[in-house]
Amino acid sequence: MALSRPIYNFLGFYFEQLFNHPVRTKSITSSIVATSGSIASQILSGQNVNPRSVFAYTLFGLIFGGSVPHYFYTFFGNVVPDVQYKALFEFLLERILFAPTFVGLSLYFLSIFEGKSPEQAKKILKQLYLQVLVTNWRYLSLPVFVNFNFVPPMLRVFVANIIGFFWIIYLADKRRRAAAKKENTK
After folding, report:
1. What does each C-alpha distance from 55 to 31, 69, 106 come to in angstroms?
2. Which pLDDT belongs to residue 120?
3. Model-level pTM?
């Protein structure tokens, strides 16, 4: 019981910040989740931790990971009319519009933040985009659907961060394998 008090205090603080400062809180949280996912992916692969890659994920989470989803969901929450199947409609819009856009942003800017040129980032984007997007649709559609339809609104960001942690592990591994394959073909 003594250990649960700090956890409850932290969660209370987190939810208060999320309510009062949503973009800032989501950006900081996304940065922490992206950093943790990148490090976990590198450790699980048995490689040394690459600080440049960790920095890229940290920066991407801070700049894009909190603000872009926040404004997207806020916009669609205001635009989509209150109809019987609103949650299903929002889910479909998220999968059809947001997922492809965010996958592209992720692949391109992670490469840029790692110090690659825009031309190299475009090559990586072209190489991985379709495969990563299809994987996103295949494996994240059910968790996103459950989050939209069954998770209370107050907990959706928290659940999305858990989903995001595992997605970052996959994405970091996919990008690392593509880079290793490219190095081996030289």
Report:
1. 10, 21, 14
2. 96
3. 0.90
